[in-house]
Design brief:
This is Annexin. 70% of the residues lie in helices and 0% in strands. With 338 residues, it is an all-alpha fold. Residues 1-17 have low confidence and may be disordered. Calcium ion binds next to loops.
Length: 338
């Protein structure tokens, strides 16, 4: 079902907005033989103590579509579901990473969103990262896949788990529809939007959050980039400083994430990765999520931004801050040193 949804999503894309160019580190393998891969994985799983290396070598060097083909062949060959078999054979962070790879990007995003809202309490950090960084086109596919997977509307779960202006912003971002994102900021319009942002925030007492939400949730990336550039000479504070002055908590974090993604999405992810690996033990959940969800999207450019900003390659940083088979899998997804 999810696959059909994604196919429909792609159709929408083709006559909707322009598809973003991709900069993957994981690309389809040449001379691909799913039956051979499936047999090798079966042997690796049955090996005493499990041959993780073979599983990593295969699954981190195949495209998502190829992994699905391997899963199909595996089930035919071993009469078992590959995901179930991997769950039994692997554990900890490596298991989470491999199971993530067995999902499509949209299925993975949908399940990460679901997990962030599961049970008591909410993992706001994850929720903000995914909702504020995905494009309108990606969000439309995620919503459809979410409904297929969990039989519930993403909007309903977000509304049930958040409150106040934070909820309003996230819902505005989730409730995209085909043809949205058309905020026109060309020419004199960009000055008007600039003045709207300024009047609603820094200029007045308190903040007219509704106006900020309605402008920022449009995600008209090139237009808003122009607006924020112009805003610098319009307001004594740039957009990020204005956000920090005007709002607090999760709402502040969300607006900042949006602006950072409008300005340079790959730098945003590079900084998140760096932050997650700053302390001695890496925040493996964050590292796994970014590496798995971006490896077939833009991880190559994230690597470039990482090196430029942090003067150290992503590869070396992963090598220093993670260990074991989990590290091997991450390094393979990373695809090389810079
Ligand atoms: Ca104000």
């Amino acid at each position: 079902m999810a696959l059909v949804s994604e196919f429909l999503g792609q159709l929408t894309l083709s006559y909707g907005g322009e598809a973003e160019p991709k900069f993957p580190t994981v690309v389809p393998a040449r001379d691909f033989d799913p039956a051979r891969d499936a047999a090798r994985i079966d042997t690796a799983i049955k090996t005493k103590g499990v041959d993780e290396q073979t599983i990593i070598d295969i699954l981190t060097r195949r495209s998502c579509e190829q992994r699905k083909e391997i899963a199909f062949e595996y089930e035919r060959y071993a009469k078992k579901d590959l995901v179930v078999a991997l769950k039994g054979a692997l554990s900890g962070s490596l298991e989470a990473l491999m199971l993530g790879l067995m999902k499509s990007t949209a299925e993975y995003d949908a399940s990460e969103l679901k997990a962030s809202m599961k049970g008591l309490g909410t993992d706001e950090e994850t929720l903000i990262e995914i909702v504020c960084s995905r494009s309108n086109e990606e969000m439309m596919v995620i919503k459809r896949v979410y409904k297929d997977m969990f039989k519930k509307e993403l909007e309903k779960d977000v509304a049930g788990d958040t409150s106040g202006n934070f909820a309003k912003l996230l819902l505005a971002l989730v409730e995209v529809s085909p043809g949205s994102g058309g905020l026109d900021c060309s020419g004199s319009r960009s000055l008007q939007v600039c003045s709207c942002l300024y009047e609603a925030g820094v200029k007045r007492k308190g903040t007219d959050v509704a106006t900020w939400i309605s402008i920022m949730s449009q995600r008209s990336v090139p237009h808003l980039q122009k607006v924020f550039e112009r805003y610098k000479s319009y307001s004594p504070y740039d957009m990020k400083e204005s956000i920090r002055k005007e709002v607090k908590g999760d709402l502040e974090k969300s607006f900042l994430t949006l602006v950072e993604c409008f300005e340079n999405k790959q730098l945003y992810f590079a900084n998140r990765l760096s932050e997650a690996m700053k302390s001695k033990g890496a925040k493996e959940k964050v590292v796994t999520r970014i590496m798995v969800s971006r490896c077939e999207v833009d991880l190559m450019r994230i690597r470039t931004e990482f090196k430029r900003q942090h003067k150290r390659s992503l590869y070396q940083t992963i090598a220093e801050h993670t260990k074991g088979d989990y590290q091997k899998a991450l390094l393979s997804l990373c695809g090389g040193d810079d």
